[in-house]
Batch of 4 targets.
Target 1
Amino acid sequence: MTPQSRGTRSVTVLARIADDRVEALRKTLREADAPFAHVPGAHVVRLVVVEDVVAQTRPTVWGWKARLLDLVVHAGRGPQPDRLPHPYVLLTATVDGPQERFFAGMRALGPQADAIWEHCAGYPGSERAADFVRFFTQRSLPADYTFAGAPEGTVRELRDAVAMRRRLASLAAAGNGGRVPALATSGPAPVPQRPRAVVSEALYLGDIQGMVLRGFGHHHAAAHLFLRFGDPDAARAWLGGLAPRVTSAAQVQERPNRALHLGLSHAGLGALGVSAAQLSAFPEEFRAGMYAREPALSPGRGIEPWSAPFDGTGSVHAVLMVSATTAEILDAWLRELRAEAAGPGDGVRVVAEIRGERLLADPGGRRTFVEHFGFADGLSTPLIDGYDDGPREELLPPGEFVLGLPDVDGDEAGRGGPAGLIRNGSFLVYRKLEQDVAAFRETTSAVADRFEGGAADVGAALVGRTADGSSLARCPVASHVRRANPLDTLPGGLRLSRRHMMLRRGIPYGPPLPEGAPDDGRERGLLFLAVMGDIHRQFEFVQTQWMADGNVFGRGGEQDVFTTAGGPRARVLVEGEPPAYVPVPRPLVTCRGGEYFLLPGLAALAALARGAGR
Amino acid sequence: MTASGRSGRSTALTVLSPMPRLWAGPLRAILYLRKRLGPSRDLQDMSFIHFAHWSVITGFPGQERRTRYAYLLFRSDFNGDWDEYIDAFSIVIPLRMALIWGWSYGFPGALPTEPFRRYIRHNDLPVDHYWSAYPESSVSEIAAALRVRDTYREHLGDTDPADAPAHPAWPRFLADVQGDLHAWERDDDTAV
């Protein structure tokens, strides 16, 4: 089907801006109050003041194919300076019917149209229709190729259909006469894999922090100490004493009974005296910190529920993560570490401490780790090429998790960053997610009668797995598990979705709430820890596109209820005969704070302690 | 999270890139061929592009002198994350990207993604005014709405939606388009 046979047309107009009117026009456009809402048949319209062309530079990084192309096409020569003949205003729109009709519709705006176009040379005013339309047709450019991804329809048809769908969905949800047949499982839960003996030489295990490549499953107790640095010299002295004891990936195979890891925030690196030039070379999101990014990560909520120590940008400089096989070993070591932090000089202050503890359960007779809602956790984790065993297509390049190594795009992870600081390091996303267990139980039991399998099936439909970790025969489209790892179910398939995987290293905190017990009002939840090479492409993408939105799953604004969402009009659709809706009147999970940390390589930690990077 | 033009779910991308005049003809021919062949399946499957337009400009309207180069003007309206949009193009159709932008100066190749993303960001013209007739509706939302509308007509004809739940065909209608009947509304939602 050619674009012409469809209803929509492309309109492009380049009108010369009269001398010295660029700023006035820009101001008018930025302040314009949606004039195109009154132009019939306009799908999308944009206006761009193009003062001049963008100056081109030759790429600094390019592959041999692009070089070869440049040799053929440009004879290997760079561009000469070029200028537009005049400043232009570019109008581009997608409209119903012929462009003349759109121009005529714009003329009907009268003074609103004049306010924009009077800044252009030769504008005849909107009084005479023929002159007005001719002004635009004479300045129009054809589109050589147009692609329309949205289904065919006029503006009116599309808007009416959208409103109708919304109304019918509300009616269906209000009636909530759904019936969901018992959920069937598709075989047993996945078994977490074991370490592999032969490791690729690309991975310098002795330099990578241990938790990057492997979770410490046998460590049942953990404590996270949040630190602020004071005097930089004293802080570096403290770091110098600590660095040699940070657990490396080489030690993981020996299954140590205790482990120590250290993450530094961007503010923390600054407080240690790292130079402004080095600090500015880090990726944007790491520089900004999670506090500044939260409004986009948790739309509608942002930092409002956050509490100490995460109560400001850069309020936490470092996180010291200590874990051990037993609480006794952990406590003994913590006493030692706290005493060191309180040592000579005002180098380090512990501003908060959170204890984590593994929760164990035996659902279905198999002993597994669970989280507070009672679901098996830590079952599926991405496999790393050069470290894990697995089918070729399931292995992810090490640069997805370790900086300086090749990543999934064939690029070097962290390229452009301060090499000395990031080599063999990783980024750690830390989020304290409070879980409201009573709310979860109320949510699932409230609609249990709509599910043949009762409340357990409501939970399973939301999670995408049964409590014991078994996969569902038909994984619900926007369930938590599917959102976290859509496999090949999204457009672009695995090729795109594998670019957004993370290694999860979380641990629950707070006492469990026994089944059937009333709400005790105590705080509990998950310390969400995820290791990755690119915070924006991995964590932030997953959080904003897969968790805090449902569009890519065909679920509009439906959000994941296990990250941070819920409210009076929040309800999850579960397909059935007919479909059921699960209202989530208050959030089941609330983020109480978090930060982006760098887990530097061991050599980088030692170098930082020596004052490198200043 | 970076966008110069945004209206609800819709983001605008506008790129004007110079190329030797010599190649304007061949590029037009490629775009013409693309037009004759019709929209490509894999691009359509991406389901987050409302519209994309390409024009080769060899003369600017009302020009008093000629520019040194010809220009490729690309504009697109899409849903979702800016970075992911650019990356998806690079990964899914790298060859076609090279066929279209390869003539332009500064094109670093479609892969790896980061240099190409930087190239597009450098060339993306800031939008001064952006308007969408259905800002809260993504491409897939529109497709869903049309499916619901058509199925509704099929089962319930022109029944007023207010009376629909009492209609005998209502359960059949619900079962047929259930995946499209999501009803999550945010606290900050406004009407359509």
Note: Chain B has a mean pLDDT of 90.
Target 2
Amino acid sequence: MTRPLQALLIGALAVLFAGAGYLFYEWRSGGRPPNPVATGQMVLAAKFMGLDNQPQALGQWRGKVLVVNFWATWCAPCREEIPVFIKFQDQYGARGVQFIGLAIDQKERAGPYARDIGINYPVLVGGLEGMDFARQVGNSRGVLPFTLVIDRSGKVVTTEIGVLKPEKLESLLKPLL
Amino acid sequence: MRLIFALLLLLSCTVRAGEPELLEPEKAFRFSARMIAADRLEVRYEIAPGYYMYRDKFRFGAEPASISLDASQLPPGTIKKDEFFGEVQIYRGDMRFVLPLTVAGEPVPRFTLNAVSQGCADIGVCYPPQEQKAEIRHTGLSSGALSAGVSPFLQSAPGAPASAAAPRGKPQSEDTLIAELFKGGYWALVMSFFGFGLLLALTPCVFPMIPILSGILVPHGEHLTHARGFALSLAYVLGMAITYALAGIAAGLLGTLLSAALQNPWVLSGFAAVFVLLAASMFGFYELQLPSALQSRLAVTTSKLHGGHFASVFVMGVLSALIVGPCVAAPLAGALLYIGQSGDGVLGGSALFAMALGMGVPLLAVGASAGALLPKAGPWMETVKRFFGMVLLGVAIYVVSPLLPAVVYMLAWAALLIVFAVYLHALDPLPHGAPGYRKLFKGVGVISLLAGVALLIGVLSGSRDLLQPLAGLRGAAAPAAQPVLFRRVSDLPQLEEAIRGAAGKPVLLDFYADWCVTCKEMEAFTFTDAGVRKRLDEMVKLQVDVTANLDEHKALLRRFGLFGPPGIVFFDRQGNEIKGLRVIGFQPADKFAATLDLVLN
């Protein structure tokens, strides 16, 4: 093998590996949070049935600090955080915070549970379509609980997968009031 | 090259492994099922560490309803104290349970298992109930002889407590054949891969290794004993095998991301470049061997050690595996991807190690013969080398074909065929009394020349069909058979909509591209068959033309875990993909008709 050809071969390999590494990095760093403005618009454009069988558009709460919580009765961690949300709704409701519960569940289960535990904010029934909606707005793995916080301008401030601790929720809401 | 690539990936993976990530449900709770006796079905959930499933949430059913499953005897789980649900039984790790199965009335050859399950992750999130399906083939239910075919995927059934969007299941890229290979247990799998390696040894991929090996053996000259020759080539083959084993481990641990990476234009171009370089060595532009500086360094540093020469030979084996890697990459793709899905590094490593040993068998034979079997140089040999060079160039064109417009693709083939003909002396007069092989080569050369010229004329006259390059010259007088009417879809939402709109008909989805030879073959020979036509009439026929290779095309290919066309995917009347029936590659009319029958029933 002559020298230039050796150099060519080695050079080609080097370029190839460098390219591969870069591409892999690009691939890994995918799954960025969705565009906060567009996601917010998507949420505010959504419409789901309420527990009273009346369709409810999320757009009616535009201008408030919205906390949209995806939950289900079969989801133990969801049940864990809902009492916190009830407390926060009491505490911050007057200052423009609005919690929304979107149940990935049947109305027959979500309704009685909401009544028993005393949920003091609107509960909408998403069913399994609600799960697709959750995926579209940033819950790529389709798990519960999943919570979105949207500011008064309709921009998504954060998407949270898993239980939202009271301290964290407070620190998220305070700057938005 | 794929190997290095895989290793690189592995490296980058460890670097960025800091953030914990939630698994897709079908990865967290990996589902499979098989018949273990005529009246017993084994269901298996491989639950990823950190995840658990609720015992009381399992529901099993079968279609047709004449098969009933008894799920009342699930094994006890471990107790989890839950603040809200009280004490619940959960499963972790590798769970298998046996479900007694009874058949009412006529035995059926295959049935569908529907499994509903629900689980959570320890970090405090839960997955919605998911329904998974497995096609169980049940060929000898009455006789007791059984075979099982399993393909896990998610299903969405209207009204069922399952995911509502059809394309939720992570695509499985393997063909059922490969999948079945993997069901035979560890040793069966390893042996299969050894056999696979033996087959690969018959491809030109091993050819570039022979000059390297002869470079190792020849310096020993007359002193080379059979034992030493064998030992040297064994060291070389082991070096190669260990490199492949590492690739297998990487594939096992990395999962399916390889398939995504393999659709990248840069990666494809890189592979093609390596093929071209290998071909150049076959044409004698350079000798394929280690850089001499590196070779002598290795010799110096290792000769001080006892048996040091073996070490350097071993390193050469490693390096040659890296150099020749892309050559075997194409046939390996399916297997590697499957290993990826198994998530089992040990299995992947052993399988590829065995495969490399199989590939090394001819090299071991060359070594054990103390060089006597080394191909002798000579005009005959040169022609064979050039032939392999041509094959490698052909593979290079094939690999980059998804990136090329049809015109360029056809021109490349035309050029290759014509140059090949020239190398075969198609244009030189045969000397009087030429040996028989010269005549044979000339004949092959002339055929190649004519094919190349036909392609060239065809493409220049506007044909974009590799199989019928001159069709355009027939004029309007030749009415082609009525083409199958496919509805074009170009992205995922369109596909979903079309499947929804199928109104209870099964759906056929054909991945097509102008450069796809197999697609043209299917069109020309299979879709034109009357029996196939009749069956196709009962289906909704969709086609994705991925010639332009747009982002949405890539997304569609990725969705189905396909490398590119050809690929025909079927959906049942409910709009769920029928796994295990995919047609990848050419199927003659009778076989394809049989496949369609399975879809229709």
Note: The longest strand of chain A covers residues 65-71.
Target 3
Amino acid sequence: MSEKIRTLLRQTEAFRNLSDGEIEQIAGFSTIRKLEKSQRLFREGEKASSLWVVASGEIDVRFELPARQSSEAQTLSTLSETGILGWSSLIPPYKYKLSAYCISESCEVIEIKGRELLEHMKKNPELGYRVLSAMIRVVGNRFEHLQATAENRSPL
Amino acid sequence: MISLDFMDRVEMFKDLTDEHLKAIQEAAETAEYKKGDCIFKHGEPAEYLWIVTEGEVELRCESSEAVQQGTCEPVTFVSTAQAFGWTCFVPPYQYRLSCYCASRHCSLIRIGKDRLEQLFEKYPEIGFAVMLYTINAVGTQFQELQDEIARQRGQEIMNKW
């Protein structure tokens, strides 16, 4: 299982520039979690304690509506293998702003404890610099994509 | 030259040592503007990180489409010891907003992105501090954009009920 975590982390853009030893360190506080179709990974408003990397399957990131079951119409983005979600675990106030649901037959996700990752980066600022620079590129690209989608989208 | 005491007040440089602050101080250049002067325009290549040392600047969303969609704050003010222009670290490395001097006089310092990246190589602690601030800033903006899109789409869904 830990080999699977290391392999996936190596392929994830945020960790791609790390050495084998550095990947090993991050894998040390990472675990794999399995989800079934429609199972929720986290819900908006919950304490954001982890960053997640999709290992297999597809995860929808959705907003919730009162008194309504979650559906595809509430999806803002869909992530597949090596996609990363749960940025809120690195940003105050450390609360998830959206919910995440497994939408394929099954899903596997790598859970990286946000607090431990932040502490590890503080102790190893050179690694922290490389990881955060890569994460900023990922968030920046997603921001551009989301903004373009919002500006070009016709009403439902 | 800007004092170390001032550099210490800049949130982006929180927790850095005097040695680090001195290195940043040496890389910085000063720039002076008067009210209404344009400091940079939306869409220009983001080549500098900026810090206000005196006065106030206005970051203005000049994309009418983005304002209409509610995905861009029309006006934000930045005052003393606050940093802006962190999009120099974020793809597509362009300023997302236009910047104007909003007070009678604006004193700023600017640090070239290339110069900063050299500093990050030499002092990874500076790189980590600046990237941590930047991911907070871009992450917060990303979340705000998601919130706004979710609000609009939620409204559309509820209107169809």
Note: Residues 30 and 160 of chain B are 55 Å apart (CA to CA).
Target 4
Amino acid sequence: MYGWVGKILKVDLTEGKISTEPTEAYVDEYIGGRGLGVKLIYDNYKPGTGALEPGNPLLFNTGPLSGTAMPGSGRVDVTALSPMSNLRAKSNFGAYWGPELKFNGFDHLFITGKAEKPCYLWIHDGKVEIRPAEHLWGQDTHETQKLIQQELGDPEIKVVCIGPAGENLVRFACLISETGDAAGRTGMGAVMGSKNLKAVAVRGTGSVRVAHPEKFLELSIQVNREVRESPAYQELSSWGVARGVQMMYQMGFFPVGYFEDVCVDEICQKYAAPAYVEQHQLKNVGCFNCPGRCMNFLSVPGLGKGVTSCEPFSGFTGAVWNLDMDTFWEATLLVNKLGIDCTETSASIGLLMELFHEGIITEKETDGIPMVRGSKEAILTTIRKIAAREGYGELLAQGQKAFTSQIGPAAVEKLDLVKGLAPHAYEFRSFHGTALMQAVGHRGDPLPLRGSLLEVDWNHAPEWFQQVAKEQFGSEEAAIPTSYEGKAMSAVISEHLERVPDNLGICKWIYGLFAYQDVNMALRLFNLATGKDWDMAQLLKVSEKVRNLERMFDVRQGLTRKDDDLPKKFFEVPLSKGKFAGEVLDRAKFEKMKDEYYEIRGWNKETGIPTREKLVELGLEAVADEVLN
Amino acid sequence: MLKTLIVDAQKCSGCRSCENYCALKHGGLCNPARGRIHVVKWEREGIFVPINCRRCEKPACEQVCPKHATYRNFDTGALEVDAARCIGCLNCVSACPFGATFVDPESGEVLKCDLCDGDPTCVKVCPTGALTFEDLSKEAYLKLIACADQIPLLVREAIGRQE
């Protein structure tokens, strides 16, 4: 096979058993990466198994283009049952680990069971060992990687690991690779920790074969040049998102605090990330084989070195009312080393600050530390306590819901969650397509979705982007943030586009958002690499199938239309400031957008569940038989 | 004037495009381990050093080869290996003072940078300008300028002034 390297590696930690299965049988229907990951978890997860029980499979999925010589080929999709939402988890990380797995001859890594004692996996040149990790237990993520590289005697070994938070089964613990590239969301670190698995170390020297090497080389050199020349990547490669985040605050796309109100003037005026980056940045870095360098490598004297990408720039600033950049950096390094999801952590801190501000909690509930908005002590102590599950961190580590339930109904009332997770911190009151994509989304992911980005872009040049929206989504209104029209179609198309790079194992920021705004280039590269001759319709049909299978997994877990919702704050409290002052979501119009969405998808409008006809059309008859009956 | 490949490690972001595109160009495969250039990485320090043949004036690899398989291509200045003569003793690998002669992990074949016959692929795809292809005479000159550039800064630091 070209593109794919041929095998799915299966590791049963309970039995210590290692086996493989060929990839080929699945690829025409699911391609690979996220798509094939969904198929594998749907088939192998037994309903009723708890997220932290040994039976929950943990999957690492690369795609046919992962590891090839083309920009953005370093991505890995991670899935399991999420301990946060009890639905299918989805997380994705970059850096250098995924290609290294493929150079071992494995497209997917499938882990089940639970080791008796802490262990780590060592995969090298196609061989797999389960090694003891008692000496690594308790080490932070940076230290763990270093110790494994030293122990195995090769600095080029790539490690993805959990930190103390994952060991302690913090529900939103994450996986960390290199100095900070994370499979952040949906609690993959807790799943790995529940298996007594500290790390997966890989090193391979095999090849990924491509069907048309000369043409592939020529085209990928062209892509390399085009990515470098694209204005978005010139910005990202020198500043990361530091300046972009400031712009997001100014246009009111990012809320301040726990979704309090947009555009707090103070943060617009005093947001200091660009200056901080200028002062402390060693260089920008990126993932495997990528000319884009979206991550900032900062070195701050006294605080340390590390990498950060987008989330912390808003998570540890606006979301927790913080303007001190040293606190931002300390918090960022801390979550990376301890291995907890920045988005969920900053939202949890924001919640505490909000509760404290409203007088619902006092310092008594938080071990004597007043949760004053923006307080450095509050931010850093909360991170440490969550990771260690100490004091109030014990409850918070089980999620915001567990914490507020303990406090009482007034606190529960304040919760802003979507499907059990902190939603992406975007202002849904004024960006309605984004709101729809968050609500119906598989995990709730409006960005990076093309339709949501168009609503952001609209602020720069309304007429231009309305025209773009008309061409791509069939309606000018799709680009206008405050409109409710055309959003359903934009959501459906965007979801299909998004799954293409995910299925291929490449970066969706490049192929679909910033360098190329559609997936034509991804398709050309896919055909050249794999030797297939697919057209766009076939590629997008797989996306649709994957979307429906994801939905059916969640339906089997009990998901229905009522879960496709947003916190009520967005329907009740209008914005008081900024460009979109006065905007609030209209419940009826919001539900109508959902109706349209289900209709286009061929799902039942009342229940939000895919219809049998749709599933049969997509070749998912067996799934319909299992779940719908 | 001959051109040569100049490495500026300070600019490297460690993406390894050079390795992978090199393997694709020369072997038709995607495999950084088969590249004729290699990036040594200290990830936690943010230090990345691309290692490539220096095309020495008195090349150790050429001198130690018992079968005279390593030879200079006078059109490009590159040191190449004649696969038909090579017996795989790896003397050249051991003798290279820079570790810039590599071995194919699968076939055991010696891998040396041939500058892609005067049009290096790695230079085309290097995103940061860490790899450039310049006149041979410029190598020393560019280094001189880069170092001289640092001097005012060092002087200012030494006398404790900010400006």
Note: The mean pLDDT of chain A is 93.
